[in-house]
Automatic annotation (TrEMBL):
The keyword DNA-binding applies. This is TetR family transcriptional regulator. It comes from Streptacidiphilus cavernicola. Residues 14-74 form the HTH tetR-type domain. It holds the Pfam family TetR_N. SUPFAM superfamilies: Homeodomain-like, Tetracyclin repressor-like, C-terminal domain.
Length: 186
């Protein structure tokens, strides 16, 4: 009886996948509102569109990995243990409209439990809520949910109207939530 041994990805394949992800993340960071096409990512890596998808399984899997890589970069760049670090991160996002659009698109697609973004968006939401709760302190769970929901909504509004002041509006909401009478959750 013959047994097959499944090998893991080759070092060359791992490096190629990392290169594609780096190119795609850079393309989304520097693109306009609509993000890059799969063809432009493929061209920049010297592959066909099918060649790019070979390393990720599907375009949606690639896009989820782009968002995950951006989250990791932001966590390494910004001090997300403070509210000021959170404001800096949000200000940064207005310089990357392609990534905002991608996040909104993947968040909408994640409402389908079978979509590749579903688990990512669920995990990301839990992580961001936990981060906001740590920044705000104990007893501010509801306020953390409201700030996160407002951040999502303001990013969407900003895509439609770039004059939307995401950071300014969220700072005002933060102040109102934490200083208003009877709003602190128990």
């Amino acid at each position: 009886m013959e047994t097959s041994t499944r090998r893991g990805p080759s070092p060359k394949g791992v490096a190629r996948r990392a290169e594609i992800l780096r190119v795609a993340l850079d393309a989304y960071r520097t693109s306009g509102r609509y993000g890059p096409s799969l063809k432009s990512i493929a061209d920049a890596t010297g592959l066909s569109e099918a060649g790019v998808l070979h390393y990720f399984g599907s375009k949606d899997e690639l896009l989820v990995q782009v968002l995950a890589a951006d989250d990791a970069r932001c966590a390494a760049t910004y001090d997300l243990t403070t509210i000021d670090g959170f404001w800096e991160l949000l200000a940064h996002t207005t310089r990357t409209p392609g990534l905002i659009r991608l996040l909104i698109d993947m968040t909408a697609a994640a409402t389908d439990p079978g979509h590749p973004a579903h688990a990512f968006v669920d995990r990301r939401t839990r992580d961001w809520l936990a981060l906001m709760e740590r920044i705000l302190g104990p007893g501010y769970d509801w306020e953390a949910q409201v700030l996160l929901a407002a951040a999502d909504g303001l990013r969407f509004q900003w895509l439609r109207d770039p004059s939307t002041d995401i950071v300014g509006d969220l700072r005002s909401l933060h102040t109102a939530l934490l200083s208003g009478p009877g709003v602190r959750s128990s």
